[in-house]
Write a structure and sequence with these properties.
Layout (H helix, E strand, L loop, with lengths): L4 E5 L5 E8 L2 E4 L1 E8 L2 E8 L5 E8 L5 E5 L9
């Protein structure tokens, strides 16, 4: 699902995600590891309450839009 993201781009090519817009409100997230492949830059994030779960955030290389994805085996919450 497409999503709004506030982040900064680091000199070494990494991304520092500060917050995401969930259900119309900006929420601060915790960030985990990140990697890049042909699809784009992938960042693992932990969503805050009331959506406590790890998710994969992807900055797509083809159109530079952000997508929020569930990880396999995670619980589903409406964002």
């Amino acid at each position: 699902m497409p999503i709004d993201v506030e982040c900064s781009f680091e000199a070494g090519g990494g991304i520092r995600v500060r917050r995401l817009k969930l259900a119309g409100r900006w929420r601060t997230v915790e960030q985990g590891r990140q990697w890049q492949d042909a699809e784009g830059r992938h960042v693992l994030v932990m969503l805050p309450d009331p959506y406590p779960a790890a998710r994969e955030l992807v900055l797509r290389a083809d159109n530079l839009s952000w997508e929020l994805r569930e990880l396999p085996g995670s619980r589903s919450y409406a964002c």
